[in-house]
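Researcher: I'm preparing a figure for a lab meeting and need a structural model of a single chain. I don't have an experimental structure, so a prediction will have to do for now. The sequence is pasted below. Please return the structure as C-alpha cells so I can convert it later.
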Amino acid sequence: MTTTAHPPDHLAGTTDDRALRRMQVGWYLNDWANAAFSATVLTVFLGPYLTSIAKNAADPAGDVHPLGLSVRAGSFFPYTVSFSVLLSVAVMLVTGTIADRTGRHKELMCGFAYVGAAATMGMFFLDGDRYLLGGALLVVANIAYAVSVALSYAYLPGLAAPDERDAVSSKGWAYGYAGGGLLLIANLALFEGHDALGLSSGTAVRICLASAGFWWALFTIAPLLRLPSRAGVAPERVAAEPDRPTTGSLRELARTLRGMRRHPLTLLYLGAFLCYNDGIQTVVSQASLYGSEELGMDQTSLVVAVLLVQIVAIGGALLLGRIARRYGAKRTVLGSLVGWVVTLALGYFMPAHRPAWFFALACMIGLVLGGSQALSRSLFSHLIPAGREAEYFSLYKVSDRGTSWMGPLVFGLAYQITGSYRSAIISLLVFFVIGFALLTKVPLRRAIEAVGNPVPERL
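Model: Understood. Here is the structure written out cell by cell.
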C-alpha cells in the first residue's frame, strides 16, 4: 500500500495554492449546506413536532403501533432516529467502497444530499396524526445525510497537510454552525411572527422543516462545482473489475472489514469515538425533546437555545482548534469530554420552567460541541490507510452529527421504563465515561505509524 505525506496525486500534482483554497471553501460550504438539516430538523423542530403528532395518533394508553409494535408516543422519535442509523450503516459502507473504487465521491455525495433535501422538503406535508409519514421521511433523510457527510469527510486528507488538518477540520465545523445558525435565525423570526402572517404554529413548523431541505439543496451547488470527483482514491484499485463496480465493491467491503483487524489501534480509536460521540449526538438530537417535555420550554425558547449553541459552537470549534495546536488534539478532546460530563450533570439537575438556566446550558454545549467533533475527525484522518478514506469514514460516520443509534436507543428505553426524561438524559453518562477511558488507551503516534502515514509534530 502506498502512502504519502502530501495531498493525493490528483490534487497535489494539478493544483496550486489558490486552487486548493477554492476546494477547501467548497468543502466548508458543504458543511454550511447540510448543517441546516442537523440544526433545524434533528435538533430543534422535528423531535417535539413529531412527538406531538405521535401523541395525536396514540391510543388511550399513550402508545402508537408502528409495524405492529407498541411504542410510547414519547419514544417514537428517538427510536426512529436509532432505526434510521441501523439502516444507514450498510448503505454507508457499500457506498464508501463504491466511491473509493470508482472515484465518484462527489457525484455520490451530492446525489445523496439531494435525496435527503427532497425528503426534508417533504416534511412540509407532515400534520394531523401522520406520524408514520414523519418517521419514513426522517429515515430517508437521515440515511442520505449520513452517507453524504461520510463521503465529504473522505476529502479531508487531500485538503490539508497532516499538521494543518486540525485547523481545516475546525474551520469546516465553524462554517457548519454558522450556516445552521443563520437559517435558525430566519426560522425563529418566522415562528415568532406566524400569527402576524396568518399561519398556525404547526404550519410555521412545517415551513421551517421544509426550509432546511431547500437550504441544503441550494448550497450543495458549491461543493458540486468546486470539489474534484475523487477524494484520495488509489487509482490502481479502480481498474480492477471496471465493468462490475457494485459486485467488486461488495467484495472490497468484505476485504476492508477483514483488513481492519490488521490495524487494531485504529479500531480502538474508532471504538472510543463511536462511544463518546454517540453520547454527544444523542444530547444534541434529544435536547429539544428534553427541553419541551421535561423542562417545560416553549418552541421559542428551544429555538433560541439551539441558536445559542450554533453561535457559541463557531467560537468553540476555533478555540479548541487553537488549544490543540499548543496542547495536542488528544488532550483537548479528553478535556472536552470532561466538559460534556459536567454539562450533562447540570442538565439533569436543572429546574423546569427556567429559560435562563436552559440558555446557559446551551452555551456550555456549544463551547465543547464543535471542537470535540472537529478534532476527533482530524485525528481519525491520520489513522486511515491511504486510498481507503471513504470506506473508513463510512464506519466513522456511524456515530456523527445526528447519526448515532446506541444513544437514542438507550435514551428511548430509559424513558420507556421510567417515564422520566431526566432518567433518560442521565443514562447517557455511560457513553462519555467509557469513551474517555478508551481514548486514553490509544497510543496515537504508534497508531499513525502502523498505517504508514506521516506523524504530525503535535498530537
